[in-house]
Amino acid sequence: MMSGFEEPSDVNGPQHFEEHPSVVALLRGETCHIARAVKQRQVTAVAVCQHALHSIKRLNPSLNAFLNVDESRVLEEASEVDRLVESGLPVGPLSGVPVAVKDNLCTEGQPTTCASRILADYRPPFDATAVDRLRGAHAIILGKTNMDEFGMGSSSEHSAFGNVKNPWDLERSPGGSSGGSAAALASGMSPLALGSDTGGSVRQPASFCNLTAIKPTYGRVSRFGLVSYASSMDQVGPMARSIRDAAALLSVVAGRDPKDATSAVQEVDDYLAACELPIDGMRIGVVRSQVHRAQQEEVVQGVERAVDALRARGAKVVDVALPHAHLAVSAYYVLATSEASSNLARFDGMRFGLRERRASLAGTLQATRSEGFGAEVKRRILLGTYSLSAGYQDAYYKQAQKVRTLICRDYAAALQQCEVLLTPTTPTTPFRLGEHMEDPLSMYLADIYTLPISLAGVPSVATPVSEAGGLPTGVQLTAAPFREVEAIRAAAALEEALQTKGRIADLALSI
Ligand code: GLN
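A: This is the predicted complex of the input protein with glutamine.
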C-alpha cells in the first residue's frame, strides 16, 4: 500500500473495476499533480492509466474520440515508469501522465490511420519526434484519437471511422480536425492530448470544447512523423484543460530536431514560467474588424469579457488592423489543397496501407485511391491539382502566395504595436453535427479567424472565455514568431480572471 492513495481493489477487468475517488480526482486535475504523485509514490502510473482506460471504456462508445487504444501496451509502459520510480532512477516531467495522441502522428508498431481507409492497416516502423519526446518525458501514450481524414475538415465528421461527438452537447460537433483529442480532454478521458494544426485544428476544437490549445510558431515543434497535409503550415499542437498543462506539454515537444529541416534552431523558452508572469503594461491589440464579423452574439460577448478581464489585470488594450485577413480563407484553401494534392500522391497502393489489386499498375493505383480516400480528401486533391496545373497556377497558386505575403506583413506590422493580438477563435459556438456537411464552403468559412494566423506562421493560444453553463466559445491570443511566452502569459492571466481552468463536461446525465 502506498501513502496517500490506495490501489484500486481489482485491476483485471472492467466488470470488476472499482474507481478510486482520489485517482479520479487526480486525473481530472492538473497534470503536474499526477506526475508528482507518481514520482513520490503516492499512486502508481499503472493505477492512473487503469482509471483512464476505464473511463475510455465507459465514455468512448458515446463519443468515438479514440480510434485505437492498446490497453496492454499502456499498462506495460506504465509499469515500466513505476519500476523506474521504485528503483530511484530519474523520471521525466510527465511521469505516468496519460496523453491522447491524434491519429496522424506516427506511433511505432501501432495503427496510425489519419482516420482514412487508405491507412486503416498501416503501422509505422517509427515514432514521430513529438511522440518520442513524450515517451522520453515518461508520459504514457493512451491511444490514438479520431479526426477529419488527413486533417481535412473543421468538424471531425470527415472521418472514415464515424464522427466524434462534443461532450458538452452530443448533438454538436467537437470541432476539427483534432476533434477526438478535444473530446477526450473535455470528457475527462485523458488529462493531456496532442493534436495538429494546419489551419486551426487544435484551436477551433479547443474553442468548441472549452479547452486550451497552442498552435506553436511554424518550426517550433518537429513535424517528423506527423503525416503531411499542407507542409508549409502543419504544426503539432498541445491541447489541455489549462494553460499550465498545455505549456508543460509544449516544453516537452518543442525544439530543434535534425530529422526535420524546417524545425527551428531556436532556444526553447520556459513556457511554464511564462504562466506566472504578470501582464501589467502588456499591450493587447484587438482586431475590431474581426470581432464585428462574428456571426453570434455569444462570440462577441466572449471577446468583450476577455478584453475587460485583461484590462482589469493591467494590460493596455489598443486597436489594431489586419487589412488582408479577410482574404485568408481563399488563399488558404488554394495553398492547403495544392500542398495536399502533392503530399497525398504518396498513397499509391505500393508503399503504404491499402492496395486494391487490379490487372494493371494504373488500375491498381486508381482503385486504391478511389476506395481509400473519402469524398472531402478527393475534393481537395482535385482542387489542389487544378490550382497547380500549368494553365492555372498563375491565376490561383501564385496569386494565393502573394496574398499570403500580404497577410504575413499585416501580422508583422500589427505585432509592432502590441505584444499579443486578441481575436475570436470561431465565428460561432459549436455547430450541430451535419450542419455544414452538405455545403463544404460554409464549413471552410467557419475557419476565418484561425487561417490568417496559420498563413503567417505565428504562434497562437486558444483559450476558453464562455460563461459556465453556456455553449463553449474562445479567443485566440497571437504573438510574434517564437514569442509563445507572450501569448501564454496573457492566456494564464485570462484563465485566472475568468476561472476557465479544468472544465470537464458532465456526461453522466446525457449517456
Ligand atoms: N479546417 C481546416 C482545413 O480543413 C484546418 C484543418 C487543420 O488545421 N488540419 O483544412
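Residues 151-154, 177, 197-201, 229, 336, 447 surround glutamine (CB under 6 Å). The chain has 18 helices and eleven strands.
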